[in-house]
Amino acid sequence: MVIFKNIAQTLYPYGVFRKGEAVYLTFDDGPIPEVTPKLLAILERYGVKVTFFMVGDNIDKHPDVFEQVVKAGHTIGNHTYNHLKGWDYSLEEYMENVAKCEETIARHLPHGCPASKPRLFRPPYGKATFAQRKALHQKGYEIVFWDVLTQDYNSTKTPEFMFRRIQRETRPGSIINFHDSLKSNERMLEVIPQVIEWLQKEGYEIRGL
């Protein structure tokens, strides 16, 4: 169950929403060497698998970090090649950028590691036009939004604020949005162990999508 599920489905046609007792941790904007390996170490310590929505340009710049994520068994999703805000681009430009990211993911996958099935996509900023969402759906993507936004990218928000927000808003089936980015670095890395321990104590199973 996702908070305000019916409203969310109205706002985000073709978006994916989850049911069940699991909670899904997701991380946008990586991979980057300053943050992602530190996050991977935390996730390994707790035995947790999550989903990374990656920017293709960052994959090209840091293929070794991308390989670390894949080999650790986490799920990979498409976050466009250049982190495009869909409202600012034509349908053709947007879909070309999505395809470029998909090609980059496939090109850098370690030998023997299959691509995620179904293909997962998250629009940067959560913003894409109806035509873009429809085209993505027709291309076979599952478009994944979230119902818990941590605001870890916001320098005015503390880890304590983030943790309280997660406690207040998380429900069975929740998709929680974090970022493995320079903006989020210290706040996200500080709060993640606390969030994982609380979720496990509450009886949630933490999964990748």
Structure description:
This protein is of the alpha/beta class. It is 42% helix and 16% strand. The chain is built from eight helices and nine strands. It has helices at residues 5-11, 36-46, 56-61, 63-71, 91-108, 130-138, 159-169, 185-201; strands at residues 15-16, 22-28, 51-54, 75-78, 119-121, 141-144, 148-149, 175-179, 205-207. Strands 2, 3, 4, 7, 8 and 9 form a six-stranded parallel β-sheet that branches. The protein has a three-stranded parallel β-sheet with strand order 1-6-5. Helix 7 (159-169) packs parallel to helix 8. Mean pLDDT is 90; it is low at 1-17.
Secondary-structure-based class equals: alpha/beta
Strand content is 15-25%
CATH fold naming: TIM Barrel
Number of domains: 1
Radius of gyration: 16 Å
At the first level of CATH, what is the class? Alpha Beta
- Look at the structure and name the CATH superfamily: Glycoside hydrolase/deacetylase
Q: What is the overall pLDDT average?
A: 90
Helix fraction by DSSP (H/I, runs of at least 4): 40-55%
- The run of helices and strands is HEEHEHHEHEHEEHEHE
Sheet with most strands = 6 strands, parallel
